[in-house]
């Protein structure tokens, strides 16, 4: 009998990639046709080289220790994904069964070194366990202990906020991270995306996108289904290319995977897709070029029939992306694009109800226990005290009342310590890397409190250059900004620590010069 496994995911899980280097291969360029506008059937306005190179990091973790159940297919999936990407012209780095140090090194090398080409696209695939605690998500390497051992676990696991730092630190044009796991958190905007009518100039803007195989709190199966559907979409074996233009956008891929996986799992597994919470990095769309599936010989469709099928597919994907929206404008967009569509009557009624909501009753009906449980499930991991106040207002004698009050009390406690206390927590020597010009070099950063109790520091890099850190200023719960000085000039150092203060990452800038360069450290 074949054992059935699931990938552990407690409220927040992020998946990234797994330890064999792929064979050498030229990273392929990609030239695409641009449409004059995003209107359906818009004319082709020209061609543009969208990418000058294509790089992928693929990670799969199976061999977990006693604290975490072993997986069966994460490594197999990673190898098959790597093979499919190579066929698409990607230069692939494949890594499997990574321990903590190797996982950090793989991600830093991929984003901070390989990712500095502004004409490149980067693709990340991760399959493995993840964990969350108090609103913070973590990637779990194979040597991570049980999370009940808080200190040792935090030293081994990779916090989710680091993922946002990695993709921001890269200069690549487009980055797509695919997580074969459930996921929730604040790094990304999880939301809908309308199927694009075609590739326009907006597509060429920078973007950081993600796709997960499940939602928070769900068990993600380890049977390879997500990988199989992903590869089929990549190869054009299924109709994931909603507008049939020969290109598969990440937004199209997300809608397709959501529909298929939800159906296969009978609603038990719901993929999510979205973009980074950053107005400068959420405009474009990651693009794959696919090979159109040849028509069946026994039933060769006529052009009209083929166009009709494409239109129906686009309409269905569009409707799936807006059906739960609370904005009348979304349904008005649907009617504009599909004036004779299948859902026109429903769209018109939704517009009417959203624009003219029924008056509120003076005496609301008593909610059922099922409604209360559903409400609580939707807010139990929230970091906003107002959500729990809303629960107490709606359910003053609810079964979770005491728990809601404790959560409100915890969330209202001040989380930012004084600069002196913060300095005591982070004081120490950190070994890391600093980006100078076009390369990374070793840097030693020493932070301490001086005789006046001020947070200051010193640093040395490449065993030659030395400087000082002063004028410290807090930036959030775990962040701090310094002014660095040395003989060649001065500037700012902006860094963010992990919750256990064991490491930091960030960037440095010159005063009066544009650009940011990475700076990291670990005790």
Summary of the model, kept short:
This protein has about 525 residues and is an alpha+beta fold. The chain is built from 13 helices and 25 strands.
3D architecture notes:
The protein is α+β, with helices and mostly antiparallel strands and 523 residues long. It folds into 4 domains: 6-289, Rossmann fold, CATH 3.40.50; 303-355, no CATH class; 369-412, no CATH class; 419-522, Lipocalin, CATH 2.40.128. The chain contains 13 helices and 25 strands. It has helices spanning 74-87, 100-113, 150-156, 161-169, 225-234, 250-264, 303-322, 328-337, 344-355, 369-379, 385-394, 401-412, 419-426, and strands at 6-7, 20-21, 30-35, 44-51, 53-60, 91-96, 120-127, 130-133, 136-139, 158-159, 174-183, 188-190, 207-215, 220-221, 247-249, 272-276, 287-289, 428-436, 439-449, 455-461, 465-474, 479-486, 489-497, 503-510, 517-522. The protein has an 8-stranded mixed β-sheet with strand order 2-6-5-7-11-13-16-12, with helices on both faces. Helix 1 (74-87) runs parallel beside helix 5 (225-234), helix 8 (328-337) packs antiparallel against helix 9 (344-355) and helix 11 (385-394) packs antiparallel against helix 12. The longest helix has 20 residues, at 303-322. It is globular. The two termini are 47 Å apart. The relative contact order is 0.09. Residues 1-5, 8-27 and 292-307 have low confidence and may be disordered.
């Amino acid at each position: 009998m074949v054992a059935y496994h699931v990938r552990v995911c407690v409220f927040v899980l992020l998946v990234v990639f797994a330890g064999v280097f792929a064979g050498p291969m030229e990273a392929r360029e990609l030239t695409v046709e641009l449409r004059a506008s995003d209107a359906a059937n818009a004319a082709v306005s020209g061609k543009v080289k969208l990418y000058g190179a294509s790089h992928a990091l693929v990670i799969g973790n199976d061999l977990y220790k006693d604290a975490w159940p072993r997986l069966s297919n994460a490594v197999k999936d990673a190898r098959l994904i790597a093979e499919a990407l190579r066929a698409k012209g990607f230069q692939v780095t494949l890594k499997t069964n990574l321990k903590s140090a190797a996982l950090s090194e793989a991600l830093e090398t991929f984003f901070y070194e390989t990712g500095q080409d502004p004409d490149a696209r980067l693709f990340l695939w991760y399959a493995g366990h993840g964990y969350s605690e108090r609103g913070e998500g973590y990637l779990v390497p194979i040597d991570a202990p049980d999370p009940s051992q808080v200190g040792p676990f935090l030293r081994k696991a990779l916090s989710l906020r680091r993922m946002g730092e990695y993709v921001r630190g890269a200069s690549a044009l487009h980055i797509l991270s695919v997580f074969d796991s459930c996921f929730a958190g604040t790094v990304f905007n999880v939301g809908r995306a309308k199927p694009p009518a075609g590739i326009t100039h907006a597509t060429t803007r920078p973007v950081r996108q993600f796709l997960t195989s499940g939602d928070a709190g769900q068990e993600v199966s380890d049977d390879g289904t997500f990988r199989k559907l992903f590869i089929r979409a990549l190869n054009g074996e299924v109709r994931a290319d909603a507008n049939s233009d020969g290109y598969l956008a990440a937004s199209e891929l997300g809608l397709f995977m959501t529909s298929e996986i939800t159906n296969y799992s009978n609603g038990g597994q719901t993929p999510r897709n979205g973009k980074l919470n950053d107005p400068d990095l959420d405009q474009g769309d990651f693009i794959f070029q696919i090979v159109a599936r040849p028509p069946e010989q026994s039933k060769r469709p006529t052009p009209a029939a083929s166009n009709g099928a494409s239109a129906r597919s686009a309409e269905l994907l569009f409707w799936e992306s807006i059906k739960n929206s609370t904005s009348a404008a979304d349904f008005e967009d649907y009617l504009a694009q599909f004036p004779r569509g299948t859902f026109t009557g429903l769209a018109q009624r939704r517009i009417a109800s959203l624009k003219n909501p029924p008056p509120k009753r003076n005496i609301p009906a008593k909610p059922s226990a099922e409604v209360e449980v559903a409400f609580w499930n939707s807010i139990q991991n929230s970091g906003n005290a107002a959500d729990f106040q809303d629960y107490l207002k709606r359910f003053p004698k609810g079964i979770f009342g005491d728990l809601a009050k404790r959560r409100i009390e915890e969330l209202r406690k001040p989380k930012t310590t004084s600069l002196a206390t913060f300095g005591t927590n982070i004081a120490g020597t950190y070994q890391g890397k600093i980006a100078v010009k076009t390369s990374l070099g070793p840097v030693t950063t020493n932070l301490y409190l001086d005789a006046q109790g001020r947070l200051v520091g010193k640093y040395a890099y490449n065993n030659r250059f030395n400087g000082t850190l002063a004028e410290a200023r807090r930036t959030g719960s775990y962040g701090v900004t310094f002014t660095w000085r040395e003989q060649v000039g001065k500037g700012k150092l902006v860094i963010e620590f992990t919750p256990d203060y064991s490491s930091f990452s960030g960037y440095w800038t010159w005063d009066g010069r544009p650009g940011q360069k990475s700076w990291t450290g670990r005790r």
